[in-house]
Amino acid sequence: MKMKIDEMPYRLREFLPVFGPTFKAKLAERIEGLAEFLGKQPRTIEAYLSYREDRAISAEDYWRVAVEWVKRKARSKMEPGFIVYGIDDESMFETQWYWQARFLSDVEGSQIAMRRLPAAHRMDERMERRSRLRHLVRDNIVSKQQICEVFAFDEHCLVDYQLEGVDWLSTPDELRLRVLEGFVAEQIGEAP
Q1: DSSP 19
Q2: What residue spans define the domains of the chain?
């Protein structure tokens, strides 16, 4: 499966509001913020956002934008419900929602602490599978290309399959995840 080129502008436009100086920033300011974050020219971002051009953001930059989107979206003036701690037990991120904490802890390889126990603090089966896929990608024991071959999709879809908190959630297949996890266990010498 390959992401359709005409889907990418929709996805990028979903991420765009957090890149402006304020939530009510104009489109040009948001484009400027995203361009600055990626180290690109604003006209390049405009091409990525255009429904008429065939130019698409690279999968690597798409992942960087998605991770930054979660980090910026997690910032809130309300008291955070979750704290994501790094390996050295130093607070890295404070988040309002469990999906943000889970995503950031998977990506950064860290732990979550809860300040208060919200009603929706447990992962459902689909969120658990996305989390396992993020671990596989982060650990880099199997390459992104190998993961894409097993799932039969491209690297843009690999990014989509790791995301939380978006309208187009995709969930990896359990059987294929187990194949990859078995391969990882074999690589590091663990018994199945």
Answers
A1: G
A2: 1-57, 74-114, 124-192
Beta bridge partners of 111: 85
CA dihedral 47, 27, 61, 145 (to 10 degrees): -70
Six token digits for residue 61: 């930059």
CA distance 34 to 177: 33
Contact 106, 79 (CB under 8 A): no
Taking each helix axis from N to C end, the angle separating 155-162 and 125-139, rounded to the nearest 10 degrees, works out to 130
**What pLDDT digit, counting tens, does each position of 59-92 carry?**
999 999 999 999 998 886 667 777 887 776 777 7
Residue type, 142: V
What is the CATH code of the structural domain delimited by 124-192?
1.10.260
Q: What would the DSSP string read from start to end of 37-49? A: HHT--HHHHHHHH
